[in-house]
Amino acid sequence: MFDTILYSELAWPDLERAVEEDYTVVLPVGSTEQHGPHLPICTDDYMAQKWAADAALLARKQFAARVLVLPGIHFGNAKHHMGFPGTVTLSFETLKNLVFEVGDSVLAHGFRKLVILNVHGGNRFAVGAAGVDLKEKYVKAGREVLIRVADDGNPDLRPRSMFDRLEKITKEAALHKMVHSGALETAKILYLRGDLVKMERVQHIDTPPVSGTDVHFYDEATQNIGASGRPRDATEEAGKIQWETHVRCLAEYLGDISKD
Ligand SMILES: [Zn+2]
């Protein structure tokens, strides 16, 4: 095992060895986008990087899993948040190509297992399409590769039992999904980076969750607030429950993959 779980802290002879030892490589994909008046625009990006790193460390400790985490992609497809200052968006094609080319580089060196870890709903289609293209390329070339797109909406990584526990703390948990900058997401940042949260700005926010089936822009869908649900119900405790669950579930997922 290396001293670090970060791919970019190694030198090429180490990475050559990592290929020989069949390390799983994780690519976190975040987004730099508005998260209401109270959360930092790094919210998704920060969680993508930290989730991957925390889970890789736990997977190594608990399952002796060989995992390396790539430098993440900080930008995503966030056109629906462009009505607010600060948001940065990539087009579908740019994001798809970015994910594809990073994955292609890693697989070209001989790594066999790639997990693309996405934490922003708007990225789903582009990230999924990149995964399909990578698989097509390498399978056609006769390589035995394992390419997964792990997503924070995946029930393996966000089990129902977690929502059951959270329902006792916040009503929003009954929706069994993450509401943009609502009570649950706010709780996670409160727990992880409370220094960046401006709770005094959310006292009056109570907008209905934006429907996942609507084509929507967040400025019109949330009356120019940028957050939905009831962020004022967020607590550090709810954040801790979620974070520990996410990290444990992803560590188990990486542990399983490392056995293949
Ligand atoms: Zn978010």
Q: What is the compact description of this entry?
A:
The protein is α/β, with parallel strands linked by helices and 260 residues long. It has eight helices and four strands; from the N terminus they run H-E-H-E-H-E-H-E-H-H-H-H.
Name of the level-1 CATH class of the largest domain: Alpha Beta
> Termini separation (Å)?
18 Å
What overall form do the CA principal axes indicate? globular
Q: List the secondary-structure elements in sequence, H or E.
A: HEHEHEHEHHHH
Give me the side-by-side strand order of the main sheet. Answer: 2-1-3-4
Which structural class matches the secondary elements?
alpha/beta
Q: Examine the secondary-structure arrangement and name the CATH architecture of the largest domain.
A: 3-Layer(aba) Sandwich
Radius of gyration: 18 Å
CATH topology of the largest domain: Rossmann fold
Mean pLDDT: 94
Number of strands: 4
What's the name of the CATH homologous superfamily of the largest domain? Creatininase
User: Strand percentage, roughly?
Assistant: 5-15%
User: Total domains, how many?
Assistant: 2
- Poorly predicted regions are none
Major β-sheet annotation: 4 strands, parallel
Specify the number of helices.
8
Q: What is the helix fraction of residues, given as a range?
A: 40-55%
List the ligand species: zinc ion
